[in-house]
Write a structure and sequence with these properties.
Blueprint: H1 2-18, E1 22-26, H2 34-44, E2 49-52, E3 61-64, E4 70-73, E5 86-89, E6 94-95, H3 97-106, E7 122-125, E8 129-130, H4 133-145, H5 158-170, H6 181-186, H7 191-218, H8 221-234, H9 239-258, E9 264-265, H10 268-272, E10 278-285, H11 306-310, E11 319-325, E12 328-331, H12 341-346, E13 361-364, E14 366-367, H13 368-378, E15 382-386, E16 396-405, H14 411-416, E17 417-421, E18 427-432, H15 439-443, E19 446-454, H16 471-484, E20 488-492, E21 500-502
Parallel strand pairs: 1-10, 1-11, 2-5, 2-10, 5-7, 6-8, 7-9, 11-15, 14-16, 15-20
Antiparallel strand pairs: 3-4, 12-13, 16-18, 16-19, 17-18, 20-21
Length: 505
Amino acid sequence: MFAITALKMLYWLGRISSMDNFILCGMQFGDEGKGTFVDYLIYNQNIDCIVKYNGGSQASHTVITPSKIVHKFSQLGSGMFSEKCHTYLTDNMVINIENLLVELDVFSSKTKIPIPELINRIHIHENCFIVTPYHKLINKLRELSKGDNRRGTVGTGVSEVQYLLNEQKKFPCEQPLGLMIKDIYNHYNNNSIIERLQALQEYVLSFYLQNQEIISKNIPDELKENLSKEISFLLHPKAFFTIASHYITEFKYARKEFNLQKCLYSNYDSAIRTYHNAIYEGSQGLLIDNVYGIKPNTTFLDTTNSFALSLSHANDVTHKIGITKAFMSRHGLGIFPTESSTVSNQISDENQNFSFWNGKIRFGWFDSILVRYAQSINKVNELYLSALDKLDDFDTIKVCNEYIYSGTIDSEFKKIFSYYLSENGQVIITDIKENHKDLNKYLSNCIPKYICVNGWKSNITQISNKSYLPTKCLEYIKLLEKLVCIPITIVSVGPTRENKIKLTV
């Protein structure tokens, strides 16, 4: 008996140690191209499992297949075009049930993008919280209440779920300010759903009444009609009954059409044991993290790779990968030291849509200081570089490696930055040593100091081998590698998995 048990232990220890895990995380402000690299790895490594370890439907990971099928993965892992791939949503994920059902509909046999056995390859932790209409509304109201000091949001309510859970820890109330997916599946006709929605409504109503004047003042004209209707409906005394009924209907549909209850699991460690290799797919970027991001324009979520590393099979991971663009980009509000009209005028992103909530997408030159700062938190051991082809037409390409600082050098400044005085007496910042609530204030007094290199001025989208990349292009990659002190192992020269070039053997 002992021998059998020992053999089993050795088997599982061997399985765990032999697993080849990849953890992907964003090293900028989000929108780094994580989805397309997940898709690439699924088809080029022996990977059969994607673990989504943070975020929710606010993250839109665009994947374009070689046959030009385009899909923005919201809830599912970005490698689901592969028939062998499974998606695990951990209990750190936030579920938008409507978006999930839409995504399942897109990939059902009734559509132009059928994925065989899809429902058997989706696994949702029963403790995943759900985004409700109240989370979406409070997300918008909270932004409007800040006036010109808006944090910046996409208006989906995902980070609001985490915010309210944190608030509840500080100020406990009778009903939880949230709804887990198991609450509906286990009690889909239970009064507890109504009670929790009512508690959410009361919270939102209280916030709205306290801030009504400033909210009304800051609603832009183009949103007034729709937002007024949303407020009127959701804050109606009986609205939570209607929403509860909606959820019950949605879940009955999910049960009938997709047998979705089969997807629920409770123990991550035991569930993941059947798989050989996994990709841990992160959401958003380090620079907007709730703790380490550049405040105040951050999310309420953890966007580091820490939760992925805490999961059992990721402990000995060898591929801790940071994803970064060959330049910088950012949505909406917030400090952006290397923002450049030159870059914005030459680069477009057809996958991004403007709205009042997410703002326009902004572009700038590569900022090695911010990427090194992200590395000090995430400690990745290799970088994947995306969107290199977007620089094809530039005569000159700039890279920021230092800031010229014109503000006050106080005790806090000395704690936050590494710096030196130039020969002409300028304060030159070389690195960010730690996060600080006033980091934004100091960075607003910084001017980037650039290294300028010649562009390669040729189309690289059809190149599939490192040997054929232009010399100037290879020199640019080597420069970034030198400045961020992390090896760049794969570059993207186009939108599909076929447009990836491996730089190392």
